[in-house]
Amino acid sequence: MSQQTKNALFILGGLDDSDLQWVINRGKVRTLLPDETLIYEGRPINALYIVLNGLLRVSIFPSGEKELAMLPQGEVVGEISFIDSRPPLATVKAVDRSQVLAIPRYELNAQLHRNAGFSSRFYQGISLCLASRMRGTIRRLGYQVEDDDLDVEAEGIDQTVKDFLTVAEAKFNWLIQNLDLTSDYL
């Protein structure tokens, strides 16, 4: 998985085996067809999503469609709205046939209140995910560089984080192997 696709890894990497099993048991695989909308700008969402495969486009519509980002396998979608409970500021659509794992908001909130260990691990992962997104945004705004040029950031990551991401990638792969990607809801 490339440097760009690590945001779900930040969340999954800190979760223990029982946490991951909970995610599998509560999450629902959703298949999106090309150009199908997952999230509408300004409309509340009721899940946190992990991109299992495919590619999603994030856009805003101030006076026409403006693409903000492309989200490949391993990305998280809806994390900001999950944290601040406000409607999303962008629309997310499938570019091609894609699958996401939808973790219902009400079930995730209940687990966070019920299990302090899960809560601590989850929020640490969300914090790392948002910090990574913020660093990428600052780089793009400050240096006018494309996402592909952000691999320079990988050079500044210490070995502990690299090891964490290696374990996290294994957990992501385990998650995909243990999900039934043939049955989903539309």
Brief descriptors of the model:
186 residues, alpha+beta, Jelly Rolls, four-stranded antiparallel β-sheet, 7 helices, 8 strands, 46% helix, 22% strand, globular
Q: Can you describe what's shown?
A:
The two termini are 27 Å apart. Helix content is 46%, strand content 22%. The strands form 2 sheets. The protein has a 4-stranded antiparallel beta sheet with strand order 1-8-3-6. The chain has helices spanning 7-14, 17-26, 79-84, 105-114, 116-143, 152-155, 159-178, and strands at residues 28-32, 37-39, 47-53, 55-60, 66-72, 76-77, 91-94, 98-104. The protein has 186 residues and is of the alpha+beta class. The chain has a single domain (3-177), classed as Jelly Rolls (Sandwich). Helix 1 (7-14) packs antiparallel against helix 5 (116-143), helix 1 (7-14) packs across helix 7 and helix 4 (105-114) crosses helix 5. A hairpin with a 5-residue loop joins strand 4 and strand 5. The protein is globular, with a radius of gyration of 16 Å.
